[in-house]
């Protein structure tokens, strides 16, 4: 089946496609500032905020498109952004 435009035929299939190369801006997480509020995790539209084995949140850059919603939702500025250099 060919996908036309932005039509998604299978909801929840974003993990099948590594979309990290689309980024212009890259978020960075400072785990020392993080208060574990889970805002970044909840609001990330790409499920690219994941919980590591140590229980701290981190960014899966293979799937992060750089929308920076995580930056806006972090109440303690633990997530910052910069222009990505490739």
State Rg: 14 Å
Report the sheet-strand fraction.
15-25%
How many angstroms separate the termini?
33 Å
CATH class: Alpha Beta
Domains, number: 1
Stretches where pLDDT is under 50 for at least 5 consecutive residues are: none
Mean pLDDT: 86
Structural class: alpha+beta
Tell me, briefly, the overall form: globular
By CATH, the topology is Alpha-Beta Plaits
The ordered H/E elements are: EHEEHE
Largest sheet: 2 strands, antiparallel
Tell me how many strands there are. 4
Helix share of residues? 10-25%
| CATH architectural label | 2-Layer Sandwich
Instruction: Give me the side-by-side strand order of the main sheet.
Output: 1-4
User: Count the helices. How many?
Assistant: 2
Subunit structure: Heterotetramer of one alpha, one beta, one delta and one gamma chain.
Cofactor: [4Fe-4S] cluster
Organism: Methanococcus aeolicus (strain ATCC BAA-1280 / DSM 17508 / OCM 812 / Nankai-3)
Protein name: Pyruvate synthase subunit PorD
Summarize the structure.
With 86 residues, this protein is of the alpha+beta class. It has helices at 39-43, 69-73; strands spanning 25-29, 49-51, 57-59, 79-83.
Task: Summarize this structure as a short list of keywords or feature phrases.
86 residues; alpha+beta; Alpha-Beta Plaits; two-stranded antiparallel ribbon; 2 helices; 4 strands; 12% helix; globular; oxidoreductase activity, acting on the aldehyde or oxo group of donors, iron-sulfur protein as acceptor; 4 iron, 4 sulfur cluster binding; Pyruvate synthase subunit PorD; 4Fe4S_Fe-S-bd
């Amino acid at each position: 089946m060919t996908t036309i435009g932005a039509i998604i035929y299978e909801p929840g299939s974003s993990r099948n496609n590594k979309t990290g190369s689309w980024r212009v801006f890259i978020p960075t997480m400072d785990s020392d500032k993080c208060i574990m509020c889970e805002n970044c995790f909840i609001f990330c539209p790409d499920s690219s905020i994941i919980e590591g084995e140590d229980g701290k949140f981190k960014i899966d850059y293979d799937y992060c498109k750089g929308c920076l919603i995580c930056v806006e939702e972090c109440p303690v500025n633990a997530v910052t952004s910069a222009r990505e250099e490739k």
